[in-house]
Each structure stands twice: as structure tokens, then as C-alpha cells.
Amino acid sequence: MHEVKAVVAKSVGEPVSLETILVPDPGPGEALVQVQACGVCHTDLHYREGGINDEFPFLLGHEAAGVVEAVGEGVTAVAPGDFVVLNWRAVCGDCRACDRGEPQYCFNTHNATQKMTLADGTPLSPALGIGAFAEKTLVAAGQCTKVDPEARPAAVGLLGCGVMAGIGAAINTGNVSRGDVVAVIGCGGVGVAAIAGAALAGAGTIIAVDIDDKKLEGARKLGATHTVNSKETDAVAAIKAIAGAAAGHEGADGADVVIEAVGRPETWEQAFYARDLAGTVVLVGVPTPDMKVPQIPLIDVFGRGGSLKSSWYGDCLPNRDFPMLVDLYRQGRLDLDAFVTEEIGIEDVEAAFEKMHHGEVLRSVVVL
Ligand code: APR
Ligand code: ZN
Ligand code: ZN
């Protein structure tokens, strides 16, 4: 048993607290990881606010990189000393989705079976089966993806959730191709990651849309070629005009791929109407349960081809995508450092939630 410091949300809406928790030695199929860095994500805040489920207390944190300290019986894919990025999609390999070759939809993903607990023995629910605002955490070995050990932990840990969600929305779900016109609505951490992903995939025109000029400036740094402030300009008309000019056709009807990275009905509706006749809409922003699909005339759905998709965790396969993206980062072709607004201590998570709430940061990253 390991006694370590960790960030725990004890009850609905209460500020998080720094606690001493107990982490068991790894059992069969498990790995004990010394966490080096862990990003602060909206989902951590949603857990704290009771928006995910009511299985308090939660051990928060899930965008992490670290070093494997020990592995349990039967673990061969990782070994002590390996530098890993943690993931929440350790696929089972034999459910229906896995068997039909679409493990990104696996519905039996693995987590550690043993429980981490508070000092008094109360079991903790780790956020997304990870719980990495902690000096050490226990996960399923499949949740550890080995990557280049020279990479900066604070930067590559972000691939564990939000940044992968955005990049994957472009390269996996949206299948952005060379020369495409891509529009991204919402330029927070997820949206700018989608912009970076579109740039990696060779998009010709990348249109960033946001209501905040500061966010649009950041989007340019990650590869946006055009920006639209949708508070001042009609987003759909602006995207269509830029797409038309890019295609050299007055009549081009919109972007090849529109990525919605806000998670709201009105921005999804903009995405719906801003896509080309055969274009793809990707919803990667996370809506709240009360939100409804906008009232779009069915004839407007019928009158177009293309596809309407959603992207959960960027349709990523961690063992395929993380090492590739870390290599691109190491080669200077993907600026993961741009996502790290600040490095903070483990005692500063509550303050980071506050900053996130005010839209001041792409990511605050706890460094241990
Ligand atoms: N139109 C365009 N952009 C908008 C709009 C709007 N109507 N409303 C908000 N935005 C922008 C914000 O200005 C901000 O830049 O969307 C961005 C959202 O970014 P973040 O709050 O940093 O969220 P992010 O981490 O990128 O996640 C995107 O998925 O996980 C969820 O709750 C999260 O809804 C959020 C989304
Ligand atoms: Zn499966
Ligand atoms: Zn997350």
C-alpha cells in the first residue's frame, strides 16, 4: 500500500481538497504509475459538480503522463521505468465493436479492479477510471501507452483527453484530407486541437470561429488561416464565403468538414448549415443532458449528402495515436506546448477550475 497526496472531490459542489489516499500495489493486469503531470479538464469540474454521477468521493485528474513504478501479474505491454501517457480507452479486444474492427466503440474498456481509498478506507471513484491528480495512481495496464521518454510530461499528458479529442475529431472522425476546407466552431482547448489536427492532415483552409478575439488569436498560432468572430459576423455566411473563395467557385456551399467544439445546439446548427452539400459535421463539444437537437426542417437534412457525426475521445485508439502524435511533437510538427497555459502545483486545482470557468486558460497542468 502506498500513501500519497491527491486531489479529492468529497461532495457535490464543494471545493476539492488535498487528501492522503491509499494506493494498492498492482494486482493482475494492473499498473502503478508515478504521475509527473496531469492537465485540468472540464470533465474534472463536471465530476465535482455532480454532473457525471453521484459516486462521491471522486479522485480527480485524467490527462496525465508519468512513469510506471510496478506492474501486476501477467502484464507484458509495459514495465517499470516506462514513460507513459494514460488513457481511458483500454479496449477489451472481444466485445462486438472490437470484433468488427471498430475498437474505438469498445463498450467494455478496462480500468483497475482494485480500489484506491481515503485514509479511512472509503473507496474512491477515479475520474474516467484514472484519478491522476495524485502522486501515484493505479490503472489497468492497458491504460498506459508507452511514448518517447524525452517528451515533456506536461505537454504529452494532454493527449490523454482534451487535446486528443480535438485532434482526433479532425483526423479520425472528420477524416480531413489534403486541401480540405475545414471550419472549427469554438476555439478553446478542444477546438484549437481540432485546428492543429486539421493542419496536420493537410487541410488547405482552416476557418476558426469563436465569440472571443483572444481565442481567435490563439487559433491562428495553431494553424487557422481565417478567423470569424461570430458575435460580430454571421458564422454560416462567413464560412460559406471563405469556402467559396478557397474553392474558386462562387457556388461552393460551405466547408468540407465543420467541427463543433462548443457543445451547444445553436453552434451545432451553424455547423449543420455551414457544411458543403457533401460535407461532414463533427460534434466534439460536450452538450449537457438537457440540450436538444435544433428544430431543423427535415427537408434541409434530405437536401444534402455528407454526414453528421459525433466524436467521443476523438475516436482515438491510444496505442496507435499517442506515440504518433508524440513523435510529431518531438519533430516540431505539432505544438503541444501551446496548450500548456501554466504549470501549477497539486494544491492549485481549485484555483485552476476558477480560471477555466472564466475562459482564461487552454490548460492548467499540475506538475508533480
Ligand atoms: N460560438 C462560438 N464559440 C463559442 C460560443 C459560441 N456561441 N460559445 C462559447 N464559445 C467558445 C468560447 O469562447 C471558448 O473559446 O467556445 C470555446 C469553449 O472552450 P473551452 O471552454 O475552453 O472548452 P474546451 O476545453 O475547448 O471544451 C469544449 O467540450 O468538454 C466540453 O465543456 C466542454 O463545452 C466544452 C467543449
Ligand atoms: Zn471491446
Ligand atoms: Zn478530459
TrEMBL record:
Its EC number is 1.1.1.306. GO terms for biological process: formaldehyde catabolic process. Residues 189-328 form the Alcohol dehydrogenase-like C-terminal domain. GO terms for molecular function: mycothiol-dependent formaldehyde dehydrogenase activity; S-(hydroxymethyl)glutathione dehydrogenase [NAD(P)+] activity; zinc ion binding. The keyword NAD applies. Its cofactor is Zn(2+). InterPro entries: ADH-like_C, ADH-like_N, ADH_Zn_CS, GroES-like_sf, MycoS_dep_FDH, NAD(P)-bd_dom_sf. Keywords: Metal-binding, NAD, Oxidoreductase, Zinc. It comes from the Bacteria. It is an enzyme of class 1 (oxidoreductase). Residues 27-148 form the Alcohol dehydrogenase-like N-terminal domain. Belongs to the zinc-containing alcohol dehydrogenase family. NCBIfam families: mycoS_dep_FDH. This is S-(Hydroxymethyl)mycothiol dehydrogenase. It comes from Nocardioides zeae. The lineage of its organism: Bacteria, Bacillati, Actinomycetota, Actinomycetes, Propionibacteriales.
